[in-house]
Amino acid sequence: MALIALSRRLRRTPFSEGVEAAGVKGYTVYNRMLLPTVFRTVQEDYRHLKEAVQLWDVACERQVELRGPDATRLMQMLTPRDLRNMQVGQCYYVPIVDETGGMLNDPVAVKLAEDRWWISIADSDLLLWVKGIAYGYRLDVLVDEPDVSPLGVQGPKADDVMADVFGDAVRDIRFFRFAMLEFQGRKLAVARSGYSKQGGFEIYVEGSDIGMPLWNALMEAGKKHDIHAGCPNLIERIEGGLLSYGNDMTDDNTPHECGLGKFCNTHSAIGCVGRDALLRVAKEGPVRQIRAVEIHGDAVPPCDRLWPIMVGDKQVGNISSAAYSPDFATNVSIGMVRMTHWDEGSEVDVITPAGVRAATVRETFWI
Amino acid sequence: MALIALSRRLRRTPFSEGVEAAGVKGYTVYNRMLLPTVFRTVQEDYRHLKEAVQLWDVACERQVELRGPDATRLMQMLTPRDLRNMQVGQCYYVPIVDETGGMLNDPVAVKLAEDRWWISIADSDLLLWVKGIAYGYRLDVLVDEPDVSPLGVQGPKADDVMADVFGDAVRDIRFFRFAMLEFQGRKLAVARSGYSKQGGFEIYVEGSDIGMPLWNALMEAGKKHDIHAGCPNLIERIEGGLLSYGNDMTDDNTPHECGLGKFCNTHSAIGCVGRDALLRVAKEGPVRQIRAVEIHGDAVPPCDRLWPIMVGDKQVGNISSAAYSPDFATNVSIGMVRMTHWDEGSEVDVITPAGVRAATVRETFWI
């Protein structure tokens, strides 16, 4: 890891004080905001996430709010996923594409009301795209970034901790649904969702002023469950096949290449930007696609750039995320692989900074 | 400084190898790309920048390219600065605002041809705004991020180093103009510009493959002028009043608040987004504005969040960037100050993490 120079531009969050007090050891920058990456070690954090419960400062999942008569029309313009049956209280994972079908973001859309949405974004200024479209189409909608900062409670004991603070109603929240629950007199959207496969919640904390009071209340309630400050864990998210925008995909990629074709209802999502391009892709299929790739041998170094996937002298893809998994006793990784070699069991080579490594393409992630 | 976890998402540049070989000690993240912040110490880098010449990896100034019949129309839609008299070969500093007059970026526009522009951006995904507007207005223009990475040569000896590599033609390039000059058979735009007040150039390196060859050629030519790898210097840029988007201004601010009213030709920049809002602002004037503020006493700590500017119990502004200046033997800073206290010589207090400090509002920066 290198050193990072702090400035106002790399925004602090409503939970930064708590994160610092918990002894954060490293950050990344996400949506020009600080996102912790490690508290004890990545391996200790990983083990603890799978066994107990963690509090995650994911305020960097900024919200784009759409309000007004054209909010739902605009939301449907933004994504090829058909939103017509989506209910208030639901969250949808939605690919967002440009006119060529290139991925601009892979956020979660939160339907607050018929005329009010939040888009909980990955790492790109989606706000600017949404504002540009709304302006260009003269839509009757307000688009801005509200003072809303997600706080994650992740891990097998998340329900117990959350029930202590928000009441047993949290136990009834279904996956990718949210309920409006009270904390200190404020109603907050509490969703069963999060960037891990260990289960848990994301609280959309509206109002920075209650950030630390809520952080402290959850820390207190979690004591008996061994709660600890945590963060999205590199190893766990690769094992689970959770993609990272900017790492595993960029605007060069279509949703189909990212394995997100199932979220593209290109025939019924009428009016969405990029539909023509995606109809073509849906018909012909992609020629490369995201795959789980097992890299054999010792633990690989951090993956800070694309690692070529080779078969002989021919490049057939790239690895974009990789880490050594203690549970699977191998290097787990995510790569984009050409169709000639994307079948289960394909044997390939990966050029890592630690030398060329044998690797095997898998059908599924480590779940 | 904290530690940063590297990943593909925080993009390396065509010059990263050179930066690492030169012993970079810290980074920030800018447009999701690594930007060095210190090589020896910020103070040593500062002294050297003012006395010699430095090579800067400013690849993070990504380009938004506009190509096609509507390129110039679109460029004028993006900024309130009147572009009608701008010639091919010129660079203009252009505020970019949204429909409410809020700053989205403060880039440099580079006019390559009547139908081809680069926008050399500050830290926000301006590409998404430009694509959204182009799509919404169905303009006949291609908008994308080309493989172009600026490389800065800054400092009093920049002309000599550049002349060695590009020939004496560089000496004739006027401020904020560029010439197309050859390196290894490739024509590159070489502009007299840069994010310091010490003079110098920015080379728009088109094609990542020639990044390191050019870096090495400039390092070799600069040996006799004591060239060293460098980067935008916090102290020097505050002294010179060079604003930083995301630090000293955000989309909350109008250009007039940022002291950029002189770049807004709101009556003649017909068709620009935000014109109605800015006409109002131009007429009434802003109620707060960017000011140089001298903070008395010992060196202040790093400014990683807004510091309130107080007069008694009343807040009259915020400091957004601050550093101790060896040359002026005081803390130089940039703040946004309400009109009640923005006059030269206003005595105020600044709440810093090191305690409350007396401070004085200045009319001009330290130049």
From TrEMBL, chains A, B:
Residues 288-362 form the Aminomethyltransferase C-terminal domain. Residues 21-266 form the GCVT N-terminal domain. GO terms for biological process: methylation. Substrate binds at E202. InterPro entries: GcvT/YgfZ/DmdA (IPR028896), GcvT/YgfZ_C (IPR029043), GcvT_C (IPR013977), GCVT_N (IPR006222), TrmE/GcvT-like (IPR027266). Keywords: Methyltransferase, Transferase. GO terms for molecular function: methyltransferase activity. It holds the Pfam family GCV_T_C. The keyword Methyltransferase applies. This is Dimethylsulfoniopropionate demethylase. The lineage of its organism: Bacteria, Pseudomonadati, Pseudomonadota, Alphaproteobacteria, Rhodobacterales.
